[in-house]
């Protein structure tokens, strides 16, 4: 089994499936139940409010959202852009409008640099390596021997 560093306490542990050690996993489950109960009583609040109301670290609340364990609840302004830190346009894109526009421009620029070879017209018979075989009697198919 592989050794990994726990993302919560930074201790080494044998990683089976999760990126946190068993001790932190138990604590995280307690945090999850706390967040879930808080959201049941206070639907529609943002991530900061959940963190304040539950004493669960904001990073943990955001991780629950990113992992899909907690539904996105008005958190568009709380997920930071992965490039600049501004509010992301959605939890799945994780980029702000400005950085998304820059990324699209970079993609278009790189696509314009790609040179594809020109298309050539190819004779189908030559491309398939076909040829005619004379039939018995000396004639070619489709012709009459006179």
Provide key terms for this protein:
146 residues, mainly alpha, Arc Repressor Mutant, subunit A, 2 domains, 5 helices, 2 strands, 5% strand, elongated
Condensed summary:
This protein is mainly alpha-helical. The protein has helices at residues 22-41, 47-54, 58-66, 97-113, 124-127; strands at 2-5, 12-15. It has 2 domains: 1-75, Arc Repressor Mutant, subunit A (Orthogonal Bundle), CATH 1.10.10; 79-113, no CATH class.
Describe the protein:
With 146 residues, the chain is mainly α. It has 2 domains: 1-75, Arc Repressor Mutant, subunit A (Orthogonal Bundle); 79-113, no CATH class. Helix content is 40%, strand content 5%. It is built from 5 helices and 2 strands, in the order ββααααα. α1 crosses α2. The radius of gyration is 31 Å and the shape is elongated.
Summarize the topology:
Layout: E1 2-5, E2 12-15, H1 22-41, H2 47-54, H3 58-66, H4 97-113, H5 124-127
Antiparallel strand pairs: 1-2
Helix pairs in contact: 1-2
Query: In percent, how helical is the residue content?
Result: 25-40%
CATH class descriptor of the largest domain: Mainly Alpha
Please state the CA-atom Rg, rounded to the nearest Å: 31 Å
Specify the overall morphology: elongated
Arithmetic mean pLDDT: 79
Quaternary state of the chains: single chain
Strand order, largest beta sheet: 1-2
CATH structural fold name of the largest domain: Arc Repressor Mutant, subunit A
pLDDT under 50 segments (min length 5)?
Answer: none
- Give the N-terminus to C-terminus distance in angstroms: 82 Å
Number of helices: 5
- Strand composition percent: 5-15%
Alpha-beta content class: mainly alpha
Which CATH-level-2 architecture of the largest domain? Orthogonal Bundle
């Amino acid at each position: 089994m592989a050794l990994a560093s726990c993302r919560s306490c930074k201790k080494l542990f044998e990683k089976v499936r999760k990126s946190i050690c068993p001790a932190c996993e138990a604590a995280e489950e307690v945090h999850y139940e706390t967040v879930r109960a808080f959201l049941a009583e206070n639907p529609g609040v943002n991530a900061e409010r959940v963190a304040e109301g539950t004493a669960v670290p904001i990073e943990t609340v955001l991780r629950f959202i990113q992992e899909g364990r907690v539904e996105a609840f008005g958190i568009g302004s709380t997920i930071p852009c992965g490039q600049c830190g501004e509010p992301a346009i959605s939890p799945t894109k994780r980029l702000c409008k400005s950085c998304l526009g820059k990324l699209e421009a970079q993609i278009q620029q790189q696509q314009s640099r790609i040179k594809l070879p020109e298309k050539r017209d190819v004779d189908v018979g030559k491309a398939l390596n076909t040829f005619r075989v004379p039939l018995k009697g000396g004639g070619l198919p489709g012709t009459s021997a006179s």
